[in-house]
Specification:
43 residues; alpha+beta; two-stranded antiparallel ribbon; 2 strands
């Protein structure tokens, strides 16, 4: 769930979901987020 300016920008750009992936090891952590919207043709 997005809030504030992030939620406003998502609405304005037709974002319908945000997928998040998290991973970690002993010394490092990684997070990746992918915003998607419906009705966009595949390339």
């Amino acid at each position: 769930m997005l809030h504030g300016a992030a939620a406003r920008l998502a609405r304005e750009n037709g974002i319908t979901s945000v997928l998040i992936s998290l991973s970690h090891g002993r010394e490092h952590a990684l997070a990746f987020a992918l915003a998607t919207r419906e009705g966009v043709e595949e390339l």
